[in-house]
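#lab-general

N.A. 3:47 PM
ok so I finally got the sequence cleaned up, no stray characters, all 552 residues accounted for. can someone with queue access submit it? mine expired

B.Y. 3:52 PM
send it over

N.A. 3:53 PM
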Amino acid sequence: MGLSAAALLWGLPGLLLTIALHPALSPCPAQASVPAHRDYCVLGAGPAGLQMAYFLQRAGRDYAVFERAPRPGSFFTRYPRHRKLISINKRYTGKANAEFNLRHDWNSLLSHDPRLLFRHYSNAYFPDAGDMVRYLGDFADRLGLHVLYNTTIAHVTLNKDQRAWNGHYFILTDQKGQAYQCSVLLVATGLSVPNQVDFPGSEYLDGYESVSVDPEDFVGQNVLILGRGNSAFETAENILGVTNFIHMLSRSRVRLSWATHYVGDLRAINNGLLDTYQLKSLDGLLESDLTDLAIVKDLEGKFHVTLKFLLEEGNRSADAVPLPQDDNDNFALRVGYDRVIRCLGWNFDFSIFSKSLRLSAGGELSKKYPLVKASYESKGSRGLFVLGTASHSVDYRKSAGGFIHGFRYTVRAVHRLLEQRHHGVTWPSTKHPITQLASAIIRRVNEASGLYQMFSVLADVVLLEEAGGEVPPCRLASAAAHGHPPHRGRFPDGLDGPGGAHSAPEALPGELLRHRSPELLCRVLFPIRPNTPEAATLLPAGVPENTGARGN
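B.Y. 4:20 PM
back already:
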């Protein structure tokens, strides 16, 4: 074919055809930037993230889990530093009831597979952290959970769009710049930022997250530990037999879990230093607000504790700064220390979340935990839920929501709420003749694990239905999420819950929100202590005010 013939083919019509085909033949920049969409995005493949993934998968939902590490449970590859978990692994109870046995199994996640019980992964009552890593890996693999490993979400923001379930989408960007979009964001990243107190000399501290765990590195040393929780006592327990002495300093007194009934307080497995202290064997416990102190280093490399106001501007040497013991021999911290170790706990990492999400605002625990409702949904962004350890503000120092044996049930409650809200799936319930109501309640009280662990947070709700003069049937909705409109009454305490009856701020989830029939009554039935003044009758949201109670 000659040049002239080719020119005819590539004339104006050919040029127009080429222009028309070009967008289809080459990637469109606008299309290439559209983020991959999921209905649900879960941040973190730790216990809470995997538990939510399990429920989403069983329900057939569109979801993805994002995990920065190559395997699940990356937290437990490093922590606790001395590798001993404080969650009990009680393998035998003398009972065959699986639900009852979960009351005393503090490590297993909920699933339909009996092989995925932690009792098959360790014989130890207090297991090794490595066993938890292995367990979580098997949980994800055997159940085929959708986890994107080696994917670090570096930024999360909000994109308003009325087509979304909640009126906006969440945009997640990973370390490679890849964007993902979801309608519901479930944050299960735990607490990962070491809590630090800024005072003069704080740069001399060793952090719990990086200090040596080899006792040989502490032989013959004087050690000061800042903090008085399990991480501080765990650190002391590791070096107790090789140091000259250990002093522990905190602004509050030691709280023992056996006395407070709170699992997060000091556990007996870590309290060896209390023996040596009470038996006058050099070790000591001291109380002071850390912000009032300062640490200075002398020419021999020893660290001295002094008071902040004694430091002069620009003068940080212990050889020049007056120390309290110069004038007062009663100053308890008058010795020099070879090591000062910070063990002050952990905070939530807010850094990847845009301010538009409004995750943190006010409150005593706002630095440590995100701001959430009693339903675990963010107060600042509809459709953003916080799961696992980071959700513990709802029941801090009350129940077990900051630990696996507690949050496995609150994660399930969040999933059931989402199923009702977005998919029309009613809250699970069982139907009984009224004559069997008492026995059904007694059985639940004696066996249920969720109510047992999450007292004051989860409850069973009984709906009574009138049946034309016949004995009415009743419906038992198990483990409904905490709460009820405050103007509807008061919420009685649960199993061994602290305190008296308290008002509950959130509406009950599940099918209760949709009932309008005046024939339906709702009473929260829960075992309460004899000295509790009342167990108020509560009507579900939307039931007319004048229905009144007509009996149990």
